[in-house]
Every structure is written in structure tokens, then in C-alpha cells.
Amino acid sequence: MTTPAVCKPQKSYLRIQYQSLLPNVVKKTFLKAEWRKLAMANYSIDKKILDKYLPYKTEHDLWNATCYVSLVGFMFLNTRVKGFRIPFHTNFEEVNLRFYVRYNQGGTWKRGVVFIKEIVPKPALTFVANTFYGENYETLPMRHQWETTKDSVRVEYSWKSLRWNSFQLSARANTSSIREGSEEEFITEHYWGYTRINDNKTSEYGVEHPRWLVYTTKDYSIDVDFGAIYGKEFDFLKKEKPVSVFLAEGSEIIVKQGTMI
């Protein structure tokens, strides 16, 4: 297993969307970290499948009339919760399955994500996320591999449920900016997290990060038992070809404390 040095984040502004929407409310920082080497496989899905996961007051956010669900694997690095580094919990893998929503607050649309499930390798992470954010985290054995050469980058994220599942991706070594109005922009630039608490309550939290750079994908391999891990309604994804697969470099991120809507 070869893990190259992580590049320094760009000196770029953070997109603090919620501060412009809520000028009189300053949300405290809950978590700071880096999200790095985000492998993203994006599938078209019938939005009716996702309706039962849709949080109160949100609606599906579509791109070119397509409803997306994304399998995302990446690394958390240099993680600090409320300013503190927790021993053995600063660097770890995460794999999640998510879809995209929007929420109209006072005539302004806020675009966010909803997680079907988030998989991490540490039980303390699951406890904190499920307790304080109402998220659906699960603790499973995980591993990753990063390999970088002059011409290419290869990443692999693996997690063990009944068996080992994996998401591998190789890309050209050079990066490029995300184009305005592109699918990559839609997938990466949802700056809110929404969680269904019950039929009348939703948890909302803000996420800050600069616009990411992306790599050009050369090939990929996805070996995931979607039905066993995420539910039988997602079983069809193991035979489905993604609409797109790409790798984002990532950056420093900030997650703000949540609120109820």
C-alpha cells in the first residue's frame, strides 16, 4: 500500500453560503478536516425510490432532468472535532451513498445532500454522527490504496460487509478546474447536509470548501453488493453502469453545527 504525500490546499475562499442567507446567525464549527481523493460514481435513479428518504421541507434536486444517486469514497485527513484531534480518529476512510436535494428558505434555494448510509472504520465516529446529527453511519472494516506516478493516479476504497466490496478508479495525473454548469459542478457543489429526523423534522448543517479540481478518469471498477449494504431497492445498481465516474482532489473542509427545520 503506497500513500503519497497529500498536496497542500489551495489558497482559495471558502463558500460560506449560509452566512449570506442567515446574516444574523453565526453557526459554530463542529468539525474541520481535509477530504481527499474523492472517487465519485454517479447513477441515474427513479426519484420515487428515494422518496421515503426525502427529509421534511426538501425536494429532489435534478440535473438536466436526471435524478442522481452517488457512490463516494474518500479519505478524511487531519480531522479535528471542536478543535481537538481525537487519537486514532484523525485519518480514516469513508464511503457513502447519497442523493441530492434542495430547500427553499425565504425564497432562496439551498442545495444539499442526503446520505442513505455512510460507512467508516471507527465506532466512535459512528456514535458521534448518529447521536449528534441523526445520520445513518455504520462501522465496518475498511482499507484504501493510493498510487501516484508521473502519468496517472489510482485510488481504491474497500469495505467489508458480508464480503469485501471495492471502488477502484485510475485517472490522468493532471488536474483541471470544474466547468461552470457542468455535471461535476452539480455533484460536488451542494453545500448543505439534510437528514430526515421524522415526518415533521429535518436536521440541516452547512459545509464549507473551495471549488475542487478534478482528474480525467481513465478506467474504473466497482464491485459492490448494493442490495445487501444499502437495501434491496438499490440492488439494481450492481448491474447498472454509472452515468459518470470522476475523481476530485478535495480540500480542507469545515462542517458547521446543525439546526432543525
Counting DSSP H or I runs of 4 or more residues, the number of helices is 5
* Low-pLDDT runs: 1-24
Instruction: Output the CATH homologous superfamily.
Output: Acetoacetate decarboxylase-like
Beta-strand level of the residues, as a percent range?
over 45%
The total beta strand count reads 14
Radius of gyration: 17 Å
Largest sheet, in brief, is: 7 strands, mixed, barrel
Task: Please provide a written account of the structure.
The chain is 12% helix and 51% strand. By secondary structure, the chain is mainly β. It has one domain (27-260): Acetoacetate decarboxylase-like (Beta Barrel), CATH 2.40.400. The protein has a 7-stranded mixed barrel. The longest helix has 11 residues, at 123-133. The chain starts with 16 loop residues before the first helix and ends with a strand. Residues 1-24 have low confidence and may be disordered.
